[in-house]
Amino acid sequence: MVAGVAWPAWSRPFGAYLSEVLMGLLFLAFLKVFPPDIWRTVRQYPVKMGLLVLTKLVVLPLIVFVVVIHLLPDYTLALILLAGVSTGLSASFFSGFVGASIPLVLAMTVITTLSLPLTLPLMIKVLIGRELHFDLLSLTGFLMALIFVPLVASVVVRRWLPRLTEWVDKQSYPISLALFAAMNLGAFGLYAPFLIEHHTKVVISVLVGFGLAAFMAGAGLLLFRSSPPYERIAAAGALGWINNVLVIVLGTYFNDPLTSVVAALYLIPYYVLIIPLGHLTRTLSHPADLSELPPQCEPEPCLAARGQKKRPGITPP
Question: pLDDT tens across 88-127, in order?
Fold first, then answer.
């Protein structure tokens, strides 16, 4: 972030490739996903998954729109996009880190990502279509290209190039770090003048980001209030750890610097959210809860409770 703002002339060229970088991140994420595992999770939590997906893609953006349209009209587009975007690519990694259910969050990432080309354009059109003029089919096609091209590429590579798949899987962590660095450099390089000239909007962007993260994570905790702690924390993470990178790209699509800036600064509450969710896992969990963890869950607290050794975990895509 700092490098992008400090040296915009050097970092700005990365901004021309934000869409390609996002597709690279999606490709790495899809390469790790196996449909039988997702289907198994959906069958295990059919009602809970349905409620969580509906909340993420429809209910949250509706509530956010009602709240911010009069209070913070300049931030309406940014907050609707953040509220209605899919679960983040690294959400499953952070879920394992805090002791939440990894399969539940991973399934949320895949289902909400694949549903997004249908839900997000419609939500924008219905809620602010009068104020924001755009081509609905064009936006839908743009999102479908961003999501389904890397999906198809991952299926082809995994099926026909097993050696390349194995190599990419081993190197996915450094590749992901490089892509995230390029994304941040490009986004903050593009909007460095805006960040420097609009200090007040930057502060407000950070504050509303924290407020949105708290609201969405709290909605997950409330929605799963009768579930075991590891599922409650997973629901909170699935709603709070979002694909803000996609919103950065959509901000450039709509030529709205404030939207991209708000999305980029959401990285701060994104990482800070680890602290309260990790604390909640330790606070809410009891030995009986840990014994009920699903076999796929491998965060260190879960394994320690079972007396198992840690196996290589899920790395962020």
Answer: 988 988 998 899 998 999 999 999 999 999 999 999 999 9
Backbone angles phi, psi at 242, to 5 degrees: -110, 170
Q: State the average pLDDT for the chain.
A: 87
Q: How far apart are CA 258 and CA 80, in angstroms?
A: 13
Q: Say which residues have a Cβ less than 8 Å from residue 223's Cβ, sequence separation at least 6.
A: 51, 52, 55, 235
Ordered domains of the chain (ranges, CATH) = 2-304 (1.20.1530.20)
Place of tokens 């079972």: 306
Asked if 241 and 270 touch (Cβ cutoff 8 Å), the reply is yes
Q: Which residue has the higher pLDDT, 313 or 75?
A: 75
Helices 35-44 and 46-54 cross at an angle (nearest 10°) of 100
Task: Supply φ then ψ for residue 87, to 5 degrees.
Answer: -60, 145
Residue with tokens 């969050």: 105
Question: Could you count the other beta carbons within 10 Å of the beta carbon of residue 180?
Answer: 18
| Beta carbons within 10 angstroms of residue 4's beta carbon | 25
| Beta-bridge mates of residue 242 | 87
For the chain, the first-to-last Cα distance in angstroms comes to: 20
**229, 281 in Cβ contact below 8 A?**
yes
User: How large is the angle between the packed helices 199-223 and 60-71, nearest 10 degrees?
Assistant: 150
* pTM confidence score: 0.85
The angle at the Cα of 213, spanning 207 to 216, to the nearest 5 degrees, equals: 140
For residue 1, the model assigns a pLDDT of 64
* b/e map 195-227, b = 16+ CB within 10 Å: beebeebbebbbebbbebbbbbbebbbebbeeb
Q: How confident is the model at residue 295 (pLDDT cuts 50, 70, 90)?
A: very low
- Which residues partner with 87 through β-bridges? 242
